[in-house]
Amino acid sequence: MIKAIAFDVDGTLYPNYQMYLCSLTSFISAPRLMYHFGKVRKEIRTLTYDGSLHDQQARLLSGRMNIPLEKAENLMERYLYRRWESSFRCIRPFSHVRETLLAIRRAGLKLGALSDFPIENKLRFLGLDDLFDVAITSEATGYLKPHHIPFLQLARRLETAPEELLYVGNSHRYDVVGASGVGMKTAWITGRKKSENSADFVFSSYKEFRRILFEGDRNPCIGGGMENIPLRSD
């Protein structure tokens, strides 16, 4: 029985191209930093480490850029956590997102959000912060997606078992693989068909997503050898 639906944020609740446009100021102001930070984020997803994720990021960035650790920390804070987040004031959600989230709440389901970057102000800029029961960043859990810990903490915060949660994301590698790895149902938002697909269902718009959830014939908990599990909670 699905009792909660949770969403990734970047590229899932709004188009990725908006993030790139809104981030241009940071890229133009500090291109070397942005390049190396992107490499650090990819590397850190593969590592096991002690201490906080934020500290580990700073250490890796310091090494890649050959700069003192304190300078790496200051650059991250200035260009990535303050300026970058404030630039998201210009983002707008996909069409029909708010209507879909309201329909989910009316169905008696909890709503969660899990993002790899700080999240609260993003949801406020999107005009959606009032709809979520739980909103967390995987950074705060110590690991980035697809590590199992962020997904398990999300389920715990929503007071649901992982198998009672449907997770929606735009990255097959990070969202679908990570969520399904802990037993969650998964939905993949993508604009085109792809050969690699282990999600329970795929959709390309929130109107389609809402139809799949509530019209029954394409319910994500029906078909493909899966037993019929109602979406509504007790």
Structure, briefly:
With 234 residues, the protein is of the alpha/beta class. It has helices at 16-22, 24-29, 31-44, 53-65, 69-86, 97-106, 120-126, 138-141, 148-157, 172-180, 206-214; strands at 4-7, 110-115, 134-137, 165-169, 185-189, 201-203.
| pLDDT averaged over residues | 86
Q: What oligomeric state best describes the polypeptide chains here?
A: single chain
Percent helix: 40-55%
Q: What proportion strand? A: 5-15%
Largest sheet: 6 strands, parallel
Spatial arrangement of strands, main beta sheet: 3-2-1-4-5-6
Give the CATH H-level superfamily of the largest domain: HAD superfamily/HAD-like
CATH topology of the largest domain: Rossmann fold
Give the helices and strands as they follow along the chain. EHHHHHHEHEHHEHEEH
Indicate how many domains the architecture comprises: 2
The tally of helices reads: 11
Broad CATH class of the largest domain: Alpha Beta
Number of E-type strands? 6
Give me the CATH architecture of the largest domain, please.
3-Layer(aba) Sandwich
Shape by Cα distribution: globular
